[in-house]
Amino acid sequence: MTDAMLSPSEWPAAVRDAARTVTGPPVEVARLGGMGGGAVWRVRSEGATVVVKRGRRSVEAHVYTTLAETFEAHGIAIPRLHLSEGSWLVIEDIPRPLPRERWEADGELLATLRRLHSLPLDRSALPPDAFVPAWPESMSLATLSLCPEPERIDLAPLLQRARQEARPLFEPVCPISGDPNPLNWGLRDDGRLVLFDWERFTLGAPAIDLAITVPGLGAGAAYRRVATTYLGSGASPEEIDGLARSIRLAKVWSVVEFLHGVVSGSVKPGFSVDTLVEQVAAWLRSELFP
Questions:
Q1: What is the pTM of this model?
Q2: Other C-beta atoms within 10 Å of 244: how many?
Q3: 210-264: per-residue pLDDT in tens?
Q4: How many CB atoms lie within 10 A of CB 124?
Q5: How far is CA 44 from CA 3, 87, 146, 195, in A?
Q6: Neighbours of 34 (CB within 10 A)
């Protein structure tokens, strides 16, 4: 039976019991969407909610069971864990989404990521199935397969150049969330900012996380604002320009990885990707290789 077909009656008994302990008798169980096909539900009663998740990798459970205290000690708030049972998690529901006006270069959000990137963790802190970011040629070829022939000829050398320049991004420089997009942040009722969805927690360059915080393809000014805010007032113009460039390259990679997932069927977007494909070549020419 697939995750999409699972219902609360088919959840493990420990999961149902843990959710009920938090909420009491539920009045609604809603499946939460996700382009990557993850299985997530929100359980709601008259006075409480909780999230139930069936993970695809062990790394997210590892974060909640092994690294949560380290994160908390360094000012990185994640949902509270109620139960970890095999591939299943029962975790705190973060009630308020990140406001739209905070989606770009938010100081508190970027300070949280900087603290995460400063943690002294290496590969031994990750389980064997942790996500490993990379840009093999097959990802570029998948992206090109979505383009009409004239655009494909124009885009291929730009992608090849971006792929070569992006290689340092995949060195295991520091811990990264792997997916700190604006929809994976929320606020507790006390206003504290919380980052959730840790299935792609891994090691890489900070620019990977920073690029994912920028909505859409973004423009040059957006990348510079993110770099400036992340580095702080003591950064030199050269440092800001260098990081902004790395963030742009990481954005290209994130788009190519996404389109590769569409082609392979591992990502099921809720929108047509045709417009995105049309925009990529023009964006590369104007933002990365003017």
A1: 0.93
A2: 23
A3: 999 999 898 889 999 999 999 999 999 999 999 999 999 999 999 999 999 999 9
A4: 5
A5: 20, 22, 41, 21
A6: 16
